[in-house]
Structures are given as structure tokens and as C-alpha cells.
Amino acid sequence: MVGNKEDIKEHFKENRKEIENRLEEFRELRESPNKRKFNELVFVILTSQTEAQKAWEASKKLKEQKIDQKQTSQVTNLLERCEVSYPESKAEYIKENKSMLSQPTLTDSKHSLKINSRIDEEDLEKTRRWFAENIKGISWKGSSHFLRNIGYGNGFAIISSHISSQMYELGLTKNPNPPDTYRRYVNQEQKLKEFSEDIGIDIKALDLVLWSMRTGEIFK
Length: 220
Known about the structure:
Structural class: mainly alpha
Helix content: 55-70%
Order of helices and strands: HHHHHHHHHH
Radius of gyration: 18 Å
Number of helices: 10
């Protein structure tokens, strides 16, 4: 059980410094190059039904070994060794996403990653929609997670299965399952925003608070 409002506020108070440090790490990634941001995108793809630590270790190894120099089968084998779920599908997603994000454009004819050009700081909701609808292996949750991890998720909630079940335990929703459509996603997101305002914990920090209460760690 996640506890009640007072438990959540107390947990935030006890872990505030570590949470704020982690959020600052995310903000610093705004200025990072495309390759570093792609590493975060790979991590988010890998986290689906996989422990976050294992997904992060796998994403770091893929970065070190240069994805574009490996066959899909080699990526699959690496993911299997790191105990990532659905390694074949995720290997294909990663390779296809990198190819798509590296296509030449009218303003950049090089075959290099173009994640930064896809981020519209003036319209982050449009940016979130683009990633959710065009990047294979992520959804609205994954798109929100990715943007938060690179410093652009101040107004987004990351409605994972863990968060959905906690919202249900808190009486914020009538169903413990994560949302499966955009409309349901933003509906739960709004409920979590209202809850964050009620308890005085910013939405971008609340995810880390709830996650750490469930898992015992403040991670990504």
C-alpha cells in the first residue's frame, strides 16, 4: 500500500534533497546532444515490463557498443543477457527508431540523430504527441517519461502500472489498470495533478515520490 496523504508528504520531506537532485540531473539533459537523449529514449523503450535498473544497464551497454554498428540479432542477444523482456521486439524498435530519427530533412541533410529538432519548447504537448505517435515501443506514458528524463516534463505525469495502482489505492481512480487511450491518460494525469496540488508536491516530483515509496529507490 502507498499509504495516505500524510505518509506521502512525510516521504517527500525525508527524501526531498535526493529527489530535487535527480530532477536537476534531468534538467541538465536539456542541453545534452542528440546521442545522449537517444540513450534516454532507449532506456524508456526498455523499461516496459522490465526492472528500471536492468533497462538502464542495457541502455548503457548499447550506447557503449554503438547500436548502428550492430545487427538486430546482436542487439537482441545483448538485451537477453541483461534480462530485458521482449528483447526481439525491443531490438527492432530501437533500430527502427534510430533509422527514422536519423533521416535527412530539408534543414539537415546529414544521416545523424535529430531528436533536439523534434522538441518544441513552446508546445511540449505537441512534442509529447509526436513522440507517442511516431516512436515505436513507447506510448503516452513512455513519451511523458522520456521528456521528463531530458528535462521537459514539468507538466506531465508518468502514468505507469505502478502509478495507476497507487492512484487506485489512494481513491483517485476507480480502476487500478493503466490508461490505454490518450483520453484516459490525460484524465488520470489531471487527477494526479489535482492531487499534487492538494498535498503541495509538484507533479514532476510526485512521480519520484510514489515510485520510491513502492520500490525503495529514487531512480529514473
